[in-house]
TrEMBL record, chain A:
CDD domains linked: uS7_Mitochondria_Mammalian
Cellular location(s): Mitochondrion
InterPro entries: Ribosomal_uS7 (IPR000235), Ribosomal_uS7_dom (IPR023798), Ribosomal_uS7_dom_sf (IPR036823)
Keywords per UniProt: Mitochondrion, Ribonucleoprotein, Ribosomal protein, Transit peptide
GO cellular component: mitochondrial inner membrane; mitochondrial small ribosomal subunit
Entry's Gene Ontology BP terms: translation
Domain Small ribosomal subunit protein uS7: 68-221
Family that this chain belongs to: Belongs to the universal ribosomal protein uS7 family.
Record-given protein name: Small ribosomal subunit protein uS7m
Pfam family, one: Ribosomal_S7
Native source species: Acanthochromis polyacanthus (spiny chromis)
Automatic annotation (TrEMBL), chain B:
Family: Belongs to the mitochondrion-specific ribosomal protein mS29 family.
PANTHER family: MITOCHONDRIAL 28S RIBOSOMAL PROTEIN S29, SMALL RIBOSOMAL SUBUNIT PROTEIN MS29
Entry keyword Oxidoreductase: no
GO BP terms, alphabetized: apoptotic process
Cross-referenced Pfam families: DAP3
Name of the featured protein: Small ribosomal subunit protein mS29
Subcellular location: Mitochondrion
Length: 229, 362
């Protein structure tokens, strides 16, 4: 009994201190990663921005995650997609797959560009970033369905989706489509690049899934008034 | 030299294409390239590309050739230096050996291929072994040699190499004749005086004796190119030559490691690389050596002329940057700004292969 009591009296000190996902005191401010903010001269700043800057000199700042960079080539949408693709915390592999996908898309398009006759060269889009962003935009659904319980029955009710939810759904569909419905022996970057190219021209399984969702929402229009928010 | 004269007339035309020719040059003959072409890209004529390089180019460069629809080499100082030595060398003395050494990804294989292109345009017979490391590891089939029972054969590697050799050196195959009689099995043999093409075809069709065919080929070429009456000069290019004296990962069926001396291909290559013959040159590369003295097999390679292959200089980096912009390879809008360029320099440290990988996804 004495042993257990003394065990309880010992203060518990955690071995590993998690900093980022701990609940920071609201006192802490977000870090500023962009380089151009620091090179602005005083004259350009308005009064509020000057106050913000003075505040940052006094208050403590949260630690920056390892995913944000001050590189000119960083893209928040791409970072989010890489995080969604990541499994077991293997960010290196996820980033590798992403860069290989972009390279694959670019290679195919540049090859097409160089083989195209003079008149059609401008129509070939070579930038893998614009292709990826456009494909994601094409995959985003406009309305979603929510299951609402009314009078003992569950109805699929069309609801508006927030921007974040739409982006999330597009990325999630892209990743699950590539993981599940493709031949097992192809590499992930090949599968991804094929799906992205199809989504860019409004073809492919993901666009089909989005259109089916829209049709379901359209057919369930009558129940729209069941939504109370 | 007559080709160079024609190129000088083309200089007048070049000045009209000012923005085009800062990083490109029209001089596609390596013999006519000089220091003023340093850092510029020259295009390999498509007719030369297929026979010259069925093997030997790095995989990423082959992909690049396919994507851009053209094969462009950069004129760099190590390759230019070796080409100038090749032009001035005295061929009555024993063979000279040149060694490209440098960090990983600094362009040794590409410099070797540039030198090989020069040898090809001069009409020499080119013996190009793409990567000696591939012969020393991951061997799927090992046969006991029919010629010497202590040694082991590698039929697959030997046949692929013979096929590529045939593509590169078509015109010599009918000119050169064998000087010995070779018996491959009890019933198959190649007589004296038969053209070399027959020897090569024998090796390709009869896979079992292909390693011995490779050995016989090397012996023939070694004997014949030394004679003053022979109509050709031999250039041997071995990529990754430190594999010939390093370790091998091949195992025999009883799981014991294979000594490199026991492999027929390696044995014959080592004999070829010794410099006890005349009227030939050897151009070789190694992989990832800080200094030539660190090589395994330095004793057998000594004496040789080491040529260091550094990372890109500032001028060469500018040239590669402009080339990628011209070929629409750098697509990210930020990569065209000054900041983006500085970031590329920082991320790649001007290492050619790192720059290639980074620009791949930008």
């Amino acid at each position: 009994m004495a042993a257990s009591l003394s065990g309880l009296l010992k203060p518990w000190i955690p071995r590993v201190f998690l900093v980022r996902w701990s609940r920071y005191n609201p006192y802490y401010l977000e870090p500023e990663v962009r380089k151009e903010v620091y090179s602005q001269p005083d004259s350009e700043l308005s009064v509020e921005e000057k106050e913000q800057r003075d505040l940052k000199m006094i208050r403590p700042i949260k630690a920056a995650t390892s995913g944000v960079t001050s590189s000119v080539f960083s893209d928040p949408v791409l970072s989010k997609f890489i995080n969604m693709m990541m499994e077991h915390g293997n960010k290196v592999l996820a980033r590798e797959i992403m860069t290989e996908t972009l390279e694959n898309i670019k290679r195919k398009q540049v090859e097409k560009y160089h083989k195209a006759p003079e008149g059609q060269k401008e129509e070939v889009e070579c930038n893998p970033y614009t292709i990826f962003h456009q494909a994601l935009k094409n995959c985003q659904p406009v309305v979603g369905l929510a299951s609402i319980r009314k009078g003992g029955r569950n109805y699929q009710v069309p609801i508006p989706l927030s921007d974040k939810r739409r982006r999330f759904l597009a990325m999630k569909w892209l990743i699950t489509e590539c993981r599940d419905n493709k031949h097992r022996r192809t590499h992930m970057y090949e599968k991804l690049s094929q799906e992205v190219m199809l989504a860019f021209v409004q073809e492919g399984n993901i666009i089909r899934k989005k259109n089916e969702l829209h049709k379901m929402a359209e057919s369930n229009r009558a129940y729209a008034h069941y939504r109370w928010w | 030299t007559s080709g160079c004269g024609q190129q000088q007339e083309a200089v007048a035309v070049e000045s009209e294409l000012e923005p085009f020719s800062v990083f490109r040059t029209q001089e596609s003959d390596p013999a006519c390239q000089s220091e003023k072409h340093l850092g510029q890209f020259y295009t390999l004529p498509p007719a030369h590309f297929r026979p010259l390089f069925p093997h030997g180019l790095p995989y990423r460069y082959q992909q690049q050739v396919k994507t851009f629809n053209e094969a462009c080499f950069m004129v760099r100082s190590p390759a230019l230096e070796v080409i100038s030595y090749l032009k001035k060398a005295d061929y009555s003395k024993p063979a000279l050996r040149y060694l490209f050494y440098g960090l990983k990804g600094s362009g040794k294989t590409m410099s070797l291929c540039h030198a090989v292109h020069f040898c090809y345009t001069q009409g020499w017979l080119v013996l190009h072994i793409p990567d000696a490391h591939l012969w020393v590891k991951n061997c799927k089939e090992l046969l006991p040699s029919s010629f010497n029972s202590a040694r082991l054969d590698q039929p697959l590697q030997a046949t692929t190499w013979l096929r590529n050799f045939r593509t590169t050196n078509e015109r010599f195959l009918s000119q050169i004749k064998t000087t010995h009689r070779y018996a491959w099995t009890k019933r198959e043999f190649t007589d004296e005086g038969r053209p070399l093409g027959e020897l090569v075809n024998q090796g390709i069709s009869r896979v079992k004796s292909s390693s011995d065919v490779v050995g016989a080929l090397m012996k023939e070429l070694r004997l014949q190119s030394g004679q003053p009456g022979a109509g050709f000069r031999l250039a041997v290019a071995v990529d990754g030559v430190n594999a010939l004296w390093g370790r091998s990962t091949i195992k025999k069926e009883n799981k014991s490691a294979v000594d490199l001396e026991e492999l027929t291909l390696i044995h014959n290559l080592r004999k070829l690389v010794k410099n006890d013959w005349v009227r030939r040159t050897l151009v070789l590369t190694t992989v990832t050596a800080w200094s030539p003295t660190q090589l395994t097999g330095f004793d057998s390679m000594d004496p040789f002329i080491p040529v260091s292959v550094p990372n890109y200089s500032e001028k060469e980096f500018e040239s590669v940057y402009l080339y990628y912009l011209d070929r629409k390879w750098l697509q990210h809008p930020q990569s065209r700004t000054e900041d983006g360029k500085k970031e590329l320099v920082f991320l790649s440290n001007r290492n050619p292969s790192m720059l290639d990988r980074i620009c791949g996804f930008l």
